[in-house]
């Protein structure tokens, strides 16, 4: 992929001059709070599949989400992965190094609190001490500890967040000013001491964007990680609207772990004080441009962990912040859901068959939440605190929220524009401004959320399930006729049916599926040899949506009613919505339309 910027808009250029970190300990601690407490953790494989091996690591009962890492005052001097020239090492060649340095201190945890809005209802975005306030707001002049050696011999204060300062860069050097320095690292890797780490049973391979260290006995099995990362960086650059030049030599260090004891003996595990509950989470963890990935039961989910934590590392380096917890983890899950076929990578891939994404299981978790009577509203997801993310369900709901925003035709471009401004404002302000800019009201978003999550499928097509809203104005007893596409989405008819009984008839023939080149044709009664969501495939359905308090139970659109070719509908003045029934992950082969007419029945004695 050639270097290019996203068509959805460019991220802000840095207009801040940066210097070195202040010698003030108080300022350093303040930066820690700004960075936020939520460190890069990932859940274990989902209950949908068999549990991972015991050496995949253990989870934590409390902790924080992925982040750019915590600041360390007086931290170790480390060699950046960008110091390692490609000419010295090639994929499959060993690279090792002894541990050195000291453990950086632990940052404090900030917890958001809810707030009532002036309208009297709960504000969907609570006030909080912002964990990912951009570090570019902080300027200082004097380093407090040993500098990090950069590829060009410059020095940078190792206490900064992923090189967020701008030591020695100039505005006319061809780069956006904030990203001249290598990113922050936690564990030093010395390419000169090969024999030392080889004795611990570790192997390494290196390519342009990835330094991979693993204790897996078949290290060659992960050679694909190098082309995967090469293509992932190109796609991240496009999605986040990043300057491709800043990532020309950016390199991620991945510690792929089978036996944590080997990495611990080699000094290549993060200090316990940095980790949730003092241990590496079962999936993975990220700090700066370093990620730790526990080997997973299958190759797909191991790659998923690589891409999930890699997304965090990319954002940390590009923005100096990851965003609110739901956004950071949702983006990482959304982009890591991938297709790897014929040496080609597709991030944010719609995978219709769950067998293509073994051990992922986020769809199953959301279904089970509805079955147990404990689903999350969109408002609740947007208010997830960092502490929500030891629970795998939080990743599932966050993935669904990002999927909705990034695929909905009325939300996608606005969502991308705001994502490309991560780090430009606090998490709370980012979320509030994003919701203000959307053309849909919160009530409409919650209704759409219920429509999608109550019927969630693998490969769910959030773009084609988008509700077609219209203002309902007609309230008379007159007969009416409307035509709706057979595309599977809910369509507002623009009608508020006057109270009473309405006889509704429908006609038309339309394509509801296509298999093996043959079109499946349906009429309003549907195809009774195949069902979708408990109703015949292609059946015309209706919903009467009246005025109701937001979040007061399920919307009528989440509980469709059968209409078919003819039905009598009782109305109390609600708005009429219509759709053709189909699986929400198989709407791309629908075609045609339905004509629907209604007349008020005379019920007088």
Strands, helices and their partners?
Elements: H1 25-35, E1 147-149, E2 155-157, H2 194-198, E3 203-206, E4 210-214, H3 225-240, E5 252-257, H4 260-265, E6 284-287, E7 290-294, H5 299-319, H6 325-336, E8 339-341, E9 344-346, H7 362-371, H8 378-382, H9 392-407, H10 412-419, H11 427-437, H12 442-454, E10 480-485, E11 491-496, E12 500-507, E13 510-515, E14 518-522, E15 527-532, E16 535-537, E17 540-545, E18 561-562, E19 566-571, E20 575-580, E21 593-600
Parallel strand pairs: 4-5, 5-7
Antiparallel strand pairs: 1-2, 3-4, 6-7, 8-9, 10-21, 11-20, 12-19, 12-21, 13-14, 15-16, 17-18, 17-20
* Structural class computed from helices and strand pairing: alpha+beta
Strand line-up of the largest beta sheet: 3-4-5-7-6
* Helix residue percentage: 10-25%
Q: What percentage of the residues does DSSP assign to strands (E)?
A: 15-25%
Kindly report how far apart the N and C termini lie: 74 Å
Number of strands: 21
Can you tell me the overall shape?
elongated
Q: What's the tally of helices?
A: 12
- Computed over alpha carbons, the radius of gyration is 27 Å
Q: Biggest sheet, open or closed, and with what strands and sense?
A: 5 strands, mixed
- The pLDDT mean sits at 75
**Poorly predicted runs of 5 or more residues:** 1-40, 47-122, 127-181
